[in-house]
Design a protein that fits this description.
The complex is a heterodimer of chains A (267) and B (299). Helix content of chain A is 75%, strand content 0%. Chain A is mostly helical and 267 residues long. In chain A, 49% of the residues are buried. Chain B has 2 domains: 58 residues, no CATH class; 214 residues, MetI-like fold. The two termini of chain B are 39 Å apart. With 299 residues, chain B is mostly helical. The chains are: A mainly alpha (267), B mainly alpha (299). At the A-B interface, α1, α3, α4, α5 and α6 of A face α1, α2, α4, α5 and α6 of B.
Chain lengths: 267, 299
């Protein structure tokens, strides 16, 4: 396909401008993580490593990071199981209420986080009498993560024909062997892309977390929220953000390599 | 599966393992296998989420004892009356919708050329790099990004130092939210462009469509469901936000702020629940309107 040169040029300029728009604020975060002034004003005063050293010795931040990883991992695993089951059902069967099930899966992410937050908070505490804690956060996060897995896997199934599956079963494999040796390898990169997105959604989620975590559980976004406005801690928050952006390259690159085009989050 | 061995004595039928017995059983009982597959996800979503939403709806019809602060379970419409009658709620609803629409339009206008460039102009290497470049900001914490914008737009900030700062307020809120939700819109739109086969675009050219005509008559309709899918993200995320607006919005209030204030400092869950029905209604209307485009499958 040929695209005229002027169109290409204009598009390139737009993309560069958008990249600048995306990266200038992040750049400021990086610079402020080395800024010796605590007020995060502009321009920065002088260079220091102090915040980086303090961040890696901050037990509150480190334990919050651990909590976030745990919550995101558990929520992703639950979402992987439930999302895959739902997509297998909706791909293989036509049934009454199929559209409704689709809407049901989409709803937790389509409704604003504060709605999910207060609805679950109200149900957990007033109606069920549960104590808010790690379990309620994981439950809430898993609920809105199901959709990312479901959509990735469902889109992948649409593009696969059932022929390989039928062939495996004709050759004597039972349904479970077929899933393990044929279907699962075909879905692997879709599961990875969906799982990565689910992990990211849970890892950065603050609104639903605020309503379902209670006082005992501190995820990283909650820790950031509590520390952002303290003069001593604000630069450390910048260090953590910088660190997360740099570390995030690893899973994104990994997904890109394994899944190719499909692993971009939306398959 | 195993009947074929009747005609050939040399091939033994496969042993009847439990796995085979189960799969031939489920193979002949379609409804049952559908039930088994759907049971866990449906139970989770209905028992946890839908019941919670319905309970929220019920709570909106209850009231709070002004003396003890406890929820009183007698039926009343007073919460809805408060929400619909008060000028504050109306003003905040209009402002929230205006911001949500602006954010969504800005993000879609950015995502269209970027997504098109990534999928149809860039080579494989550049495309991979751009995907990484647009996904990476997702991992910089939401709060940190909002705060970075605060340092940019606040008095004595970066933009102020060159004299073009909008200051803290509605404009800053729109910019910040467009910024934070951008990856959620760019990714589905890019994936949508990626799914359009080049052959269709070439066919349009062969049939005499000029570049712009191909874009409006072939490409846009095909990528539209993905655009809608992205817009659901930016629209709903803006509609419920109460944190970014506290950081960059000055004293502006959004629906999220009101709900948060009602349930938090106000301790009035029934009123918060009634307020929550404004965004729920808006989103449900939006979802119903766009359902036919197939956007829900592109999130």
């Amino acid at each position: 396909m040929r695209i005229p040169l002027p169109v290409k040029a204009v598009l390139s300029i737009i993309v560069c401008a958008v990249l600048a728009f995306v990266y200038i604020p992040l750049f400021i975060v990086v610079i402020n993580s080395f800024n010796s002034s605590q007020s995060l004003g502009w321009p920065p005063k002088s260079f220091t490593f102090e915040w980086w050293i303090r961040a890696f010795n901050d037990s509150g931040a480190l334990s919050a990071l651990g909590t976030s990883l745990l919550v995101a991992a558990c929520a992703t695993v639950i979402a992987l199981i439930l999302g895959t089951l739902a997509s297998l059902a909706l791909d293989r069967f036509e049934f009454f209420g199929r559209e409704g099930v689709n809407l049901l899966i989409v709803l937790p992410i389509a409704l604003p986080g504060i709605i999910t937050g207060i609805a679950l908070n109200n149900a957990f505490t007033t109606m069920l009498g549960w104590k808010l804690g790690l379990l309620t956060v994981i439950t809430a996060h898993a609920t809105f993560c199901i959709v990312t897995i479901y959509n990735n896997v469902f889109a992948r199934m649409r593009r696969l024909s059932g022929n390989l599956r039928d062939a495996a079963m004709d050759l004597g494999a039972d349904a479970f062997t077929t899933f393990r040796l044929v279907t699962f390898p075909q879905l692997r990169s879709a599961l990875l892309a969906g799982g990565l997105l689910a992990f990211g959604l849970s890892f950065d989620e603050i609104i639903v977390t605020q309503f379902t975590a209670g006082t005992g559980v501190q995820t990283l976004p909650i820790w950031i929220f509590d520390n952002m406005f303290r003069p001593n801690q604000a630069p450390i928050v910048n260090v953590i953000a910088t660190f997360l952006v740099i570390v995030s390259i690893i899973p994104i690159m990994l997904a890109n390599r394994i899944g190719g085009k499909a692993a971009t989050g939306a398959a | 599966m195993s009947q074929s061995s009747n005609t050939d004595s040399r091939i033994q039928p496969p042993p009847r393992t439990t796995g085979r017995r189960l799969s031939s059983f489920f193979g002949s009982h379609k409804r049952l296998s559908l039930t088994v597959l759907l049971a866990a996800p449906l139970a989770w979503l209905i028992l946890i989420y839908i019941i919670a939403l319905l309970l929220l709806l019920v709570t909106a019809f209850w009231s709070t004892d002004s003396f003890t602060g406890q929820v009183v379970q007698d039926w009343t419409l007073s919460n809805f009356q408060a929400v619909f009658a008060e000028a504050l709620y109306r003003a905040v609803t209009v402002r929230t919708l205006l911001i949500a629409v602006s954010v969504t339009v800005i993000d879609v206008l950015i995502a269209l050329p970027v997504g098109y460039f990534m999928s149809k102009v860039a080579g494989p290497r550049l495309r991979g790099a751009l995907v990484v470049a647009f996904l990476m900001p997702l991992w910089a914490a939401y709060l940190v990004k909002a705060y970075a914008w605060r340092t940019i737009v606040s008095p004595h900030g970066l933009l102020d130092s060159i004299g073009v700062s909008p200051g803290l307020g509605v404009i800053a809120t729109i910019i910040t939210m467009s910024y934070i939700w951008l990856p959620y819109v760019v990714m589905p739109v890019y994936a949508g462009f990626e799914r359009i086969p080049d052959s269709l675009i070439e066919a349009a050219g062969d049939l005499g469509a000029k570049g712009w005509k191909t874009f409006t008559a072939v490409i846009i309709p095909l990528v539209w469901p993905s655009v809608i899918a992205g817009s659901i993200f930016s629209f709903s995320l803006t509609l419920g936000d109460y944190i970014a607006v506290q950081i960059v919005g000055g004293s502006q209030q959004l629906l999220g702020t009101l709900i948060y204030a009602n349930v938090g400092t106000g301790g009035n869950m029934p009123l918060a629940a009634a307020t929550a029905f404004i965004p729920i209604a808006v989103i449900l209307i939006y979802l119903t309107a766009v359902r036919r485009t197939g956007a829900l499958k592109n999130l």
